[in-house]
Design goal:
13 helices; about 220 residues
Length: about 220
Amino acid sequence: MTPEEAIAELTAHARPGKAADVAAYHKVDRPYLGVAVPDIDAAQKRWRKVLDVPQRVELADALWKTNIHEARVAASKLLTQARLRPDDAAWALIQSWVPDFDAWAIADHAVSAGQRRVQADLSRIDTVEGWTTSDHLWTRRAALVITLPWTKQNHPKPEDLMIRDRVLGWAASYVDDRQWFIQKAIAWWLRELSKHDPDRTRAFLERYGDRMKPFARKEAGKYLP
């Protein structure tokens, strides 16, 4: 499977008029094919069957470099797998994508792949922490999105609780950042946490809620009793 063959397969599933609609929605200047996400997902599943892990990483790298919206989504999905061995090259590639993030959809697909890699090796949290002080909005946001799995454990282990508290510290450092996507990310993290750990969520809001934008504070506490 070459990058050219992959792009041709994606293009074959393009829907009339969809490329213009997607471009208008995301408002980022890049090529759009007009392929629905379920079709992208089906294509990359077919590619997985004929590629080993190093070949998947190589194809994902090439697809990302095209800058085509659907190709970047496909690249991310190729690496979204809990058990991926070896995974050092995949993690390195995902990290290399982070400075390229410029819109939520592609960023979230890529970060979803990154979540699995961080869960596979908790020491990678140290790398993610470095993102929190980046000048790049989307890198800072990615630090919260990639750690969303630590909001969802009903029975977290001690090391998971340490990560949960560590990320809450990152969120606290963000509360004075007035950018919408940062405030939204804080709210998203806290909203998900509130379903499993309302006490930590409530404590955060009691301490920092007044410094958050009203919409973010409201969303963060949406599911609190």
